[in-house]
Amino acid sequence: MKLKKGLAVVMTAVLCAGMFAGCSGASAKSDVSTKEALNYACTKDIRDINPHLYSGEMSAQNMVFEGLTKNEGGEVKPALAESWEISADGLEYTFHLREGVTFTDGAPFNAAAVKLNMDAILGNAERHSWLDMVNEIKENVVVDEHTFKLVLKHPYYPTLVELGLTRPFRFISPNCFVNGTTKEGVSGYIGTGPWVLSEHVDNQYATFTQNETYWGDKTKIKTINWKVMPDSQTILLALQNGEVDLLFGADGDQVDLDSYKKLEDEGAYKTYISEPVASRAILINSNSPITKDIKVREAIEYAVNKENIIQGILNNSEDQADTLLSKDVPYCDIDFKTIAYNQEKAQQLLDEAGWKPGSDGVREKDGQKCEIILSYNSKNAQEGTIATSIQADLAAVGIKMNILGEEKQAFLDRQKTGDFDLQYSLSWGTPYDPQSYVSSWRIPAHGDYQAQVGLEKKQWLDETITKIMIESDDSKRADMYKEVLTYINDQYVYVPISYSKTKAVGIKGLEGVSFNDSQYEIPFEKMYFSN
Amino acid sequence: MKQYFVKRLLWMIPILIGISFFAFILINLSPSDPAEVAIRVNEITPTAENVAQMREQLGLDDPFLTRYATWLGNALQGDFGHSYVNNKPVAQEIAKALPPTLYLAGVSLMIIVVVSVGVGVLCAVKEDSLTDKALRGIVFVGTAIPGFWAGILLMWLFAVKLKWLPTSGMTAPGAVILPAVTLALGYISTYVRLIRNTMIQNKRENYVLYGRVRGLSEKTITRHVFKNSLQTSLTALGMSIPKLIAGTVVIENIFAWPGIGRLCVTAIFNRDFPMIQAYVLIMAVLFVFCNLLVDMGSVWIDPRRREA
Lengths: 531, 308
Description:
heterodimer, A: alpha+beta, D-Maltodextrin-Binding Protein, domain 2, Dipeptide-binding Protein, domain 3, 2 domains, six-stranded mixed β-sheet, four-stranded mixed β-sheet, B: mainly alpha, MetI-like fold
């Protein structure tokens, strides 16, 4: 008994000691202008940030690795290439590389390093099948030490934009290659970017420090501590506790809307919201028994009360969308037929389609109930809430919509087989819109493809999209985009809901918080502390 | 004792084979094609060709029993295959995530023992008094609060308001306290009740009456009563160890604790089958072994059970 008593005392003492140690570990409020490290919380670990693969966090890849070009303010700007020339036939791009640039391990960045990287990307073309650009590259040529030539099979028009995407066309030091390639992994994460990954503990944290030999403007903050916190409530509490200085994320990833509004109202933190970046829409399957009828699809468009969703659920934090892609997106400033919320019109269309009101309020046709399914990835709570609003809208016109929240893999299974009536469709935003988004409509594993399969002119649609990508004449390209987008608009395959925005919350004193063109990047290099 | 031990060990073989079979069969019960999942988690668009190639690479075209035998053979040598998500060996990932979980479960167990014994004995000694009722009330309320909510409440109080402890993570000093307390909350009331009830039962036994007649002090009597009441609690506590390790899933997510629970949840979301199978198997083995240890322990304490 004495032993047990002693043990209990020791245990209590250990716990108390831990508690007191915890006291000293808690952060104290101080003058932030002297802070040298920014603590950023993310629900995900940075994982494998090999720039030529897709399993790492894009914002971390963007910190360390750079491309020949970059997308900034809707334009393509020089990055590791100082300038370039394009041949008259649009097949050859000659890049003049920035001189004096080295990878952070000292290896020179030159045309040979560019070729090695580009060849490694091409050597794993299957992984990049979502990006047409990879299939369009014919040859990578080293012209001289600082000149690199890219030879294409066709005059692929988004070349410069896609070379500036966060992945895969970014450059990693040749010393990190394994067996001359990067597809089976790399031996280190050495780039030319403004940050150096100096420490990474799986699923806990990553530390990025300033690249002291960076060719451009050096970062104002010395260190970024990337903390992994899987739970968004924990992130909010950590922010309040001073353990975190910045939350940043698209589509409710790090900051859900309610919390964002609360923090904004409290005024203790600075909140930031980007310009509209991507499109949020509902896909209506044209190949599904009930929604294959164009009148039903049109009726659904009329029945959805977007204003309710924008005001009631999205708290006006996103702009209402009347067309699939915003007019600000290249080639999308087109006068489409738009549809305003009108329940009577929806009912009239359903009547015309032969769906008559049933005794229980659900419409019927040939003994079949007008019952459809909206499936979504259950991890996205916001999508679930939006679904309930749509459910109520459709019930009001006699369509019973069942909501099916599923795990990501089950959701993707359903998407791939087209086994859904309604699903969410999110475009990737600038700089991927419209070319990469529209391009993905041709891939059978995508929900967009499956939802469009029932369209009479699907084959024409896919063929035209293929032609758009390699059309060198800008006005012809614009005409083709117009044809494609008008057809899709008039077939009512998408119910445009909103144009999403990226949100950020920072502590007071953290300045320079802004947004890159891509919602997947975080411009840490522009941030600084000041009082 | 030796014979009993050998018998029990032999019995474990069919049990473990059965468990391994169920862990393996999981892959076939899932509606998703493992080859497709393996392709998709790497952000590759599945096509007929790459799915066929992946099936061959993963050996999914072999007959079911052949695949099971290969997997079991490899698992026995500590090779659980490679994760579909990051292609790292599953065994290595588990070996990395297990120590933080064991640490968390260990501290939690300490809290459970200290609090349960303290409160349980006090409640038994002060049977039906206000202290007894109040303590039991508090403990039961603590247990009734779901772990994720209790975790957030504790974090808010001790980290944000009092600034005594960090909210989450593993690096800051004292970081283990909040997750360990949250994890312990769910178990404390069980043991408080168990210790209290067994002690009260024991108090009515003849040996207590005999002790009193002999003029032993109340303190000595309580000590004997406590000793005799321990066996039931020890058995239950033994079985709680694997439960504690397997039950860290929610707590690890809230407190950003890089343990095996988080590894398992991520694996489930990604349908990372090799990881899920290994997790299920390891947890099952842990349960079986703890069960054996508890049985051996109770037989050692009470030889009468050997015949049973």
